[in-house]
Amino acid sequence: MAKYFEDGRAERRFMKDAAHLFRFAGLFLIAFLVFWVIRGYVVPKSFGQYGHYRGSALGDIAAHPAKFAGHDTCEACHTDIADTKTKGKHAHVNCEACHGALAVHANDPTSMTPVKPDTAVLCARCHTASAAKPKDFPQVDPADHSGGVPCQTCHDPHSPAFEAGPATATAAGGAK
Amino acid sequence: MNISRRHLLVLLPAAAVAWKFVQAGTPEASPNYAMGDHWWGMLIDIPKCIGCGNCVRACQTENDVPDGFFRTWVERYHRSDFHLENPEVISPDGGKEGFPSVKEGEEGKYFFVPKMCNHCADSPCTQVCPVGATFVSPDGVVLIDPKYCLGCAYCVQACPYGCRYIHPEKKVADKCTLCYHRITKGLTTACCEACPTGARQLADLKNPKDPIHEFLKTHTVQVLKPQMATGAKAFYNGLDGSVR
Hints:
The complex is a heterodimer.
Chain A: H1 9-42, H2 57-62, H3 71-77, H4 79-87, H5 95-99, H6 103-107, H7 119-127, H8 142-145
Chain B: H1 5-24, E1 40-45, H2 54-63, E2 72-79, E3 88-90, E4 109-116, H3 124-128, E5 134-136, E6 142-144, H4 154-158, E7 165-166, E8 173-174, H5 180-183, H6 190-194, E9 200-204, H7 212-218, E10 221-222, E11 234-237
Parallel strand pairs in B: 1-11
Antiparallel strand pairs in B: 1-9, 2-3, 2-4, 5-6, 7-8, 10-11
């Protein structure tokens, strides 16, 4: 071995052969740096804030405008209706369950006046008799019960039960 | 720096308030909402569901869900007395306009099952996403980042409950957000707001005052496809064994 490296020829030749490896290593290093710089610009700052996703997406999703105001908002102004409701069977039916999404009205009451729903259609949606419904839920056959007359002719939709109801046409639960 | 006792008394509450904001993180629009304080789920009380379709309509209104697609829908099961394992399931237009009437005395058992994203804690849908576009948020809601989604639909296939779809216009995956824009502002979801019978209840499992804890203790509550160990957080009360 000692003789082999004596004049340094083999060593020079080894370095000459290895030089292209170093050049490749340099290229790889530059490519990696370029990748790292581009990645720094392209990947959003909030990526990885909470996990492998864009943290600011949570804010984007939460920025969607609400269309249902929520019953607390309604009851802040419509206290009279809220009082009627708390005494009746519909105490736990929220305003917008029947009146529809009204955040537009809640945000600016003068901008729109909500249209009163047609009780002949609205009430039937829940109270039409069907054996598939829970037995203790008040149900009627609308044609038989009222013959298409709007329900509010007799019932107050906000507190629908009668104090002393008529003997016939009761909706005390179960399909009739 | 020398801090006197008087200054410390002022600084400590200020630091506590500041820390509250640090914890709150995003969403910036709701500075009082701290993600770390919530772990959202949903309680669905099947014996209370009347199949009116209010939830489906409310969801479509609130979230601009395109026609023919559903973030929540209602199914009507007819479990025959003779074929217990093969229930007949219908969901006309997602139950949006209700269901055809059933005459009294029909054979078998009828009941409604509202369906929605189960907001699984170990969700298969988030695990398959190749680009980090869908994830479980720190407050336990499975969400989609529409800016990152490629629309590859892996997640649509991965969801065992069929709760995802590709939005026909945006061409990205879409699903129930548990009304993230509402619950972060202290409101309940649109479906819960519109449900007339209280068959749906938003539940915060990290809030010790939430009635969900008492309910889970006192009722027989099940999740859908428990054998898949998805960590589903849509809790069904009175769930029939035939429900898939």
